[in-house]
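Hi team,

As requested, here is the filled-out complex form for the adenosine-5'-diphosphate run. I kept the field names the same as last time so the parser does not choke. Let me know if anything looks off before we queue the next batch.

— J.
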Amino acid sequence: MNEILYAKNLTKIYDTKNKIKVLNNVSLTVNNEDFICIMGPSGSGKSTFLNVLSTVDNPNTGILKINGKKIYEMSDSEIARLRYENIGFVFQDFNLVDSMTISENISLPLVLANKNKKEIKEKTEELANNLHIFELLYKFPNECSGGQRQRAAAARALIANPKLLIADEPTGNLDTKNSHELLKIFQQRNKICGTAILMVTHDSMIASYSKKLIFLRDGKIEQVLERNNLTQKEFFYKIVDITSKESQNLFDVI
Ligand code: ADP
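And here is what came back:
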């Protein structure tokens, strides 16, 4: 197995009056073929963790390596390059560029990497075909449905064959059918290409697509659940068990 991401003892403290540790000595290793889901109550540090792991934000202390390279010893331009060569991102609100066609949006990472036009066209069309958005290539995002836009965002995230796909609540703006379709795309990439996936969600059904669940609370990893040989349905029930206890705890603070 190849290690793609290594994080050791990450700590993040926002410069507020109470100086709470939003991340408190958190460590995580992501290898290729991993499909990891992060869950936890609101305010537990999920977004902060994802932002630090994806080099969008810096921790106060800790070590982060992506593809074996120590991030905090690199310049901003080296980090930006490492990021676009290794990581694809999918966000809740799609983040497509409205003034570009779906085709231009999907191919953006290859254009930025100076690939030749023929290769860009072939790869864009092949991926759009796989994700059933081929007929939308010359439309603009506002002419597409939410599910179609999210598939275009997934295509953009995957077109440069990233080693790691990072997704922050990727189904937050999708209905159930489109959510499952998106997760099946992720699952297929993970299975066929070994693309590692790291995803934050609050939805147990969506989390059941992963192979490992990490539950965060108060900036710490409280629980790790491995799927192992469980079916998706069995894993779903285990996740629901954790999240329903979490919901019951909410009454303790009343
Ligand atoms: P989650 O994604 O699990 O809801 P976040 O990572 O967004 O949690 O936030 C964790 C904690 O950090 C929360 O208490 C939040 O208020 C605080 N926080 C997040 N961003 C900032 C910021 N830029 N400045 C100060 N506090 C922040």
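Two things worth flagging: Strands lie at 3-13, 21-31, 35-39, 61-66, 69-70, 87-91, 164-168, 196-200, 212-217, 220-226. The mean pLDDT is 93.

Thanks,
J.
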